[in-house]
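Sequence in, structure out. Go.
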Amino acid sequence: MMKTFIIGLLIGMTLLWGCEPSTYTFVNTVTKDLEYTVDETGAFSETYTLFADDFNKDLDLPEDAIIRGVNIESFAIKSNPQTENEASAVKMNVYAGTEPDPFAKDVTLPVNLYLNYRAMPNLVTAAVNKLRDQLYGFVVDNDPLSIVFRIEGDSDPVPGERIYLIIKIRVTITVYYDVESDIGF
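Output:
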């Protein structure tokens, strides 16, 4: 009888110790491709809208996630020239949201760069941080509802040439979050 009582007591204490709430930290990364079709002679301006609902669906976070941070891991860019393109490169600025300052300034993109992405040059730290803050709002409470990304530029080195290409900007974003659980070990 005493042996059963002691075993029961030990099992009960083990279960009680194991049921303390624990916090587990997770990392989830999502990559979004922003695609622009530029079909202009000379200066161009094209937009791509990223919606909070779509972004959060791709993240697929648990409903009880406690968001600890959002980080922009990388920006990469490539082009895919179409048959009627005359430009050898484009020079552009890249904007996000309502910010008047670009997050990438004077980006020169060779038109023949169509096989692989390359790191986007000339990022502006302050503007990238503002974009990161907007993406944090996406994840925490769907605010803003969307972010409009805009590219503006012209052919380079000779402005005014026929530009007909698809420009893709790949953004890799990491979200750090905690989940509390009563599951014991």
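Check: The domain at 23-180 is CATH 2.60.120 (Jelly Rolls). The two ends are 28 Å apart (CA to CA).
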